[in-house]
Each structure stands twice: as structure tokens, then as C-alpha cells.
Amino acid sequence: MSLPTAFDALMAYERETQALARIAGRLSWDQETVMPRGSAGQRAEESGAMESVLHARRTNPQIGEWLEQADPPDADGAAQLRLIRRSYERSVKVPADLASALARLTSRSQGIWAGARAADDVAAFLPTLAEVVKLKREEAAALAGGGDLYDALVDDFEPNGKAAEFAAMFGEMRPGLVALRERALNAPQVTPLSARFDADTQMALGGELAETFGYDLTRGRIDRAVHPFSSGSGEDVRITTRTAEDDPFNCLYSTIHEVGHACYEQGIDPKFLLTPAGQGVSMGVHESQSRIYENQLGRSRAFCGYLYGRMRDLFGDFGVADEDTFYALVNRVHRGYIRTEADEVQYNLHIMLRFDLERALFANDLQVGDLEAAWNDRFRADFGYDVNRPANGVLQDVHWSVGLFGYFPTYSLGNVYAGCLHEALRRELPDLDDQLSRGELSAATGWLREHVQRHGGRHEPKEVITLACGTAPTAAPLMSYLETKFGALSGA
Q1: What's any GO biological process attached to this entry (predicted)?
Q2: Sign of the torsion angle spanned by Cα atoms 472, 473, 475, 480
Q3: How many angstroms separate the CA atoms of 386 and 399, rounded?
Q4: Which of 139, 158, 258, 358 is catalytic?
């Protein structure tokens, strides 16, 4: 029997590492969904122990030797080596004790944040957040090698992404978004929902919509959590959503959004299972899937007509006269504080706020103790009114508590990518609206699976979008889509 090649040995080793990483991910899923409240301390130790094991595997010098010797059998193999090399070179820069300390701290910090958010008590969270920022600065310094600290963190979520590029893009988008928001807010407003919607019925409809959009529930599940998220890859991809009896759209569109993430992971070619290429290539591309599912498809006039009928079937007459009114209600531009509840026009303004604060934190231009005041000042400048309580302001997102600095700009990048994909999708499926009006998503989601999802991490992020659309990504399609849609809705 012939001995395994260096490539084969490396891939076998990587498969075990990927399997362990998936187990670690389920620890986090469990913590957000069903873990007993009193288990947080032990879970922090478990998470730290898992991270120690994973860090040791990812920094094993044998990986470097295999990489030197490995001869990829094909283009897929070359992509796997590129991803392994990138992970290895980043991992060896971070000391093992720092990686473990971060895992323990962020597991503990998550519970502290949740308690502070529930109590509207910023002071209860800031000392822990200061610890997280301190360790993330140490990690960024190790990764950056003298370069920009924030870019080093962004690279974890959007490989080769640069804050300066994001800032330039956001600067171009911002005036148009602000002007469009003002026109929309000054237009006649549709009356908000006033009925009550049973939470269990919302969950049932959410499950139906998940399957309509292609989510395979034999390889997934839907649970409730404070902050909706998607977790896992391959054959075990789970999502969460949330319910509010006065706002069914929160549940339904959070579900569709997370289904976009989940379908990306489920749609990756099975040959990449438990390999570096067997997961989404970047959070920007990931977010492009969740946003196009939620917005360009789920909030389209055609699909809203279908959803209106299903809601009347399940909830009866809930005070909305017709499909056009329902469409306007689903896409209502309105004042609010919460990013995840923001309309398409204002959502990116929320991201720009967080992006600028994060850059300031890691440039040492802003200290954690001044973060709430900086947030409130920026919110007032951007949105024209004051934050009413910390849970609607600086405490609203889970990301900072778990150390996800550099993640936020990928949300807007995902919107930009979604705009490009939607433009290409419309060219390929000229009868898309007819299909959406019947609740038929298979052609649209099948196109996305073929052109984006199945590739997993095989290509670089921008390359994925360029190959799918035929041109390099820009913000122009997104801004054109928003102007057309919300200009019409506001009568402008």
C-alpha cells in the first residue's frame, strides 16, 4: 500500500481540525439557545479548553512542513492549500495563551453583556468590554506585524479587506442614503400594525418560509434567541429567530435573513465537507446571501403579495387592506434605534456608525469609557434624535461582547454584493416577479446556489461576485435599486 502524500496527510489532519471547530461552534449555539443561565462559568472554561486544542492544532509545525511538500492534485486542491496556508500563517502569530484567554473572556463577557442589556446598565458591562478590547488589541498587534490594527481584525471576516476602502465606499454611499431617508420620512406614512400575532403561529409560518427559501430542515433546525444568528456548516446548519406579538415581521424577516446564511452553508459542494473550502468564503459574501434573500427577494412587491395571502390565511384579517398597503408596510422607512429592525434605506447608516467607532477604538482615538457618549453623539448626528436607553444604543449588539471587531463593515459590503447579484439575477430570470408572486423561490435560490454558494471558499471574495455577475462589484447597483424602490414608495 502506498504511503499518503503530503497533501493527503494535510487534508486528513485538516478534516479533524474542522470537525473539532464545528463542535466548538455548537458550544456557542447551545449557549445562545438552551444552556442554563447558571452554566456560564463552566462554559467559559469549556470554550477556553476547546480553543486551546484548536489553536495547538492550527499552529502545529507539521502543517508548515506539509505545506512546503504538498503538491495539489487540481485547482480545488490549490484552493485548499491557499486557505490552509492563510489560516496557519495567521494562527502562528497569535500566542496560545492569548487565544485561550480570549475564548474564556468572550464566553463570560457574552453573559455579562446580556445582563447589562436587560438592565440598561452600561456601567455593568464596560469593565469587561475594556478587557475584551485590550486583548483584541494584543491580538491585532500580533497579526498586523506593524501594520494597521483594524485591518488585521477585518481580515478575519473579509480576507484582504481594507478599512480605507470601506471608508471610501461608505463615504460615497452616505449622502445618497441620507437624502433618500429624508424624502421617505417626509412622505405620507402607512399606518403601522396594531393587531396581535400569536408567537407560535409566527414560528410556524417562519418554518414554512424557511423551507420555501430552500432551507433543508433535515440538516438544520430553528430555535429562538435574543439575537438571531446562523451557526454551522455542511450537514448541520442551525438558525435562530425571535418573536414579538406586536411585530410579526421581526420574526419572519429575521428567519428569511438567517435562512440566507444557512442556505449558503448547505449549498456548498459536498466534496468540500469538513475542509477549509467547505464554508462561506467571507462574511461579506455570506451577508450578500442573507440580504438578497431577505430584501431583494423577500421584501419585493411580488413576494409581499404572496406573503400577505399567507398571513391572512393564518392570522385572519389583521387590519391591512390590500397587497399594496402590505408592501408599503413591510418596507416602511421609520424612525428607530435597532440595527436589525432598520429598513433598507437606514440600515447601512447603522453600520457606518459602528465602523467609525471601531476604527477609533483601535486607533486609540476613543476609549471604552467614552464609548456610550460617542455612540449617542454620533446617533444624534446621523439620525436626528437621541438614544432613549442603552439597550437601544451602545448595548444593542452582541458583537463587541464576543470580540467580533472588524465584523460590522462586512454587513454593508454584503448589501453592496447583494445589489450586484440582484442585478445579475434579474437579467437571468426576466420572469422572476411572476415566480415570486406565487411563492416560488427555487429558480432564484438555485441561481444563487449555482453561482455563489456551491463554491464555498474556493475563490477569493471579490472573485466570487465578479464571476457571478460578470463585472467587479461596486455600490452602484445597490444605490440604484434603493433609489428606484424607495423613490416609488415615497412618491418621489
Answers
A1: proteolysis
A2: positive
A3: 22
A4: 258
Q: How many angstroms separate the Cα of 282 from the Cα of each of 192, 275, 431?
A: 36, 15, 30
Which cell numbers in the block locate residue 488?
416609488
- Tracing cell 451602545 back to the chain, one arrives at 394
Return the closest-CA partner of residue 258 out of 299, 215, 297. Answer: 215
**Cα–Cα distance for residue pair 120/118, rounded to 1 Å:** 6
Domains (range + CATH), the chain: 6-147 (no CATH), 163-489 (1.10.1370.30)
Tell me if 279 sits within 8 A of 268, measured CB to CB: yes
Predicted TM-score (pTM) of this structure: 0.94
Could you list the residues known to form a binding site for Zn(2+), using ranges. 257, 261, 287
Residue 56 to residue 96: CA distance in whole angstroms: 7
- What is the band of 37 on the pLDDT scale with cuts at 50, 70, 90? confident
Cα 220 to chain center, whole Å?
18
DSSP output for 340-356: GG--HHHHHHHHHHHHH
- Cα–Cα dist 68/63, whole Å: 9
pLDDT tens across 187-216, in order? 998 999 999 999 999 999 999 999 999 999
Is 258 a known active-site residue? yes
- What is the tens place of the pLDDT at every residue in 349-383? 999 999 999 999 999 999 999 999 999 999 999 99
- SS3 percent helix, strand, coil of the chain, rounded to 5, is 70, 5, 30
Kindly give, in sequence order, each residue whose CB lies less than 8 Å from that of residue 300, ignoring residues fewer than 6 positions away.
Answer: 433, 436
- Report which DSSP code applies to 246: T
**Largest Cα span, the chain:** 77
Beta bridge partners of residue 223, listed in sequence order? 240
Residues making up the annotated binding site are 257, 261, 287
